[in-house]
Amino acid sequence: MEENIETQNSQEEKKKRGGLLPWLLLVLSLVGNGILVFMVNQEKQIVIQKEESIKTVFVERENIKADLVNLKNEYENLHTSNKKLQADIDEKKAQIEELIKEAEKNKGNKYIIAKLKKETETLRLIMQGYVHTIDSLNTLNKKLIVEKNEVIKKLDEEKNKSTQLNKEKESLQGTIDKASLLSCYSITAQGIDIKKGGKKRSVTTKAKRVDAIKVSYSLGENKISKAGTREVFVRIMTPDGKELAKSYDDNYKFKFDGSTGYYAGKTSIDYANKEIGVTTLCEGDGPFVPGKYIIEISCDGVIVGQSSITLN
Fold first, then answer.
1. How far is Cα 69 from Cα 5, in angstroms, rounded to an integer?
2. What is the SS3 assignment for 277?
3. Burial category of 68 from C-beta neighbours within 10 Å (exposed 0-12, middle 13-18, buried 19 and up)
4. Which tens digit of pLDDT belongs to each residue from 17-27?
5. Residues forming beta bridges with residue 280, ordered by sequence position
6. What are 247-292's pLDDT values in tens digits?
7. How many Cα atoms within 13 Å fall on the side-chain side of residue 140?
8. 94, 89, 69, 68: which is closest to 131 by C-alpha?
9. Are 92 and 127 in contact (CB under 8 A)?
């Protein structure tokens, strides 16, 4: 009897344990599934965060690239005549080109993009400094140009004054030069027949008998003319249009009124600012021909008197 009761109790306990096991397994299964679902959701969140981060980095990269392109264009508009400053600007433009290439290569590298962003900001600050410097230089250049123009204007005014003074000086000097010229008057000319030995001379108008032409004249008093030794030249044009001269070499050349010619006779005088009478004997290199001979008297490089003589 007692054995039956124990057997019955044992069977009831087995039934109880058999009924709890499925529930325990179910609970364990639900917990495991819950953990699995949680872990899957966590992984999804991580993936989503990574995708968002990549998208953010990509957008930042595009923004940085656009900023660099705009910055490059702004640098392109910077121009200055200062060679050193322009060289620095060109160097920065080349640096921006390299940064643009680096941005294109590194699409998802957050560290590189952050570095590019920082360098872009630095280059923009540098550019602003360049703009300020160029504006200052332009302002200075404008000021210098104004000052230069004022100096040029003053120089032109002084130059005009100097030119005017020189003209007045030249005019005054010309007046003085003219006033200092010696006057020549009482000019006479005679054909001279020189006998053998040269001691006896007679006046003649016969061309075939003339050996020389004697020209006599007076140089007037002039208080402002320079005193001292002077050379007076007599130039004679023959009837056939030639210059009468004993020789046609450099020894008989002289200058008058800006020209050069040959003289027929020359006399040195000692001028003392008083009237002086002068006689010059003029010879040629051959026989005289009939006709009119034009006579010019020059002193100090200027023709001071004219006359003529006709030989038969």
1. 96
2. strand
3. buried
4. 556 666 677 76
5. 215
6. 999 999 999 988 999 999 999 999 999 999 999 999 998 899 999 9
7. 9
8. 89
9. yes
Query: How far apart (Å, rounded) are the C-alpha atoms in residues 37 and 295?
Result: 140
Give the 3-state secondary structure of residue 286: coil
The answer to whether residue 213 scores a pLDDT higher than 90 is: yes
Give residue 6's Cα distance to chain centre.
Answer: 129
Asked if residues 217 and 184 have their Cβ atoms less than 8 Å apart, the reply is yes
Task: Provide the 8-state DSSP code for 195.
Answer: P
Q: What is the pLDDT of residues 159-204, one digit of tens each?
A: 888 777 677 656 544 444 555 688 889 999 999 998 776 677 899 9
What three-state secondary structure class fits 34? Answer: helix
Q: Where does residue 301 fall: left (phi above 0), alpha (psi -120 to 50 degrees), or beta otherwise?
A: left
Measured CA angle at 113 (ends 112, 114), to 5 deg: 90
Q: Using DSSP bridges, classify how beta strands 228-237 and 265-271 pair: parallel, antiparallel or unpaired.
A: antiparallel
- CA geometry: angle 106, 69, 124, nearest 5 deg: 100
Tell me: pLDDT of 293 over 90: yes
Order of strands across the sheet that contains 212-219: 201-204, 184-194, 212-219, 276-282
β-pair partners for 218 = 185, 277
What is the model's pLDDT at position 5?
Answer: 52
Sign of CA dihedral 150, 151, 155, 156: negative
Report which of 118, 119, 138 is spatially closest to residue 130, judged by C-alpha positions: 138
198: left (phi over 0), alpha (psi -120 to 50) or beta: left
Q: Do 228 and 270 contact (CB within 8 A), yes or no? A: yes
Amino acid in position 197:
G
Angle between helices 110-180 and 83-105 (to 10 degrees): 160
3-state secondary structure of 63: helix
For residue 126, the SS3 value is helix
> For 183, how many CA atoms within 13 A lie in the half-sphere containing its CB?
10
Q: Which residue has the tokens 């108008």?
A: 205
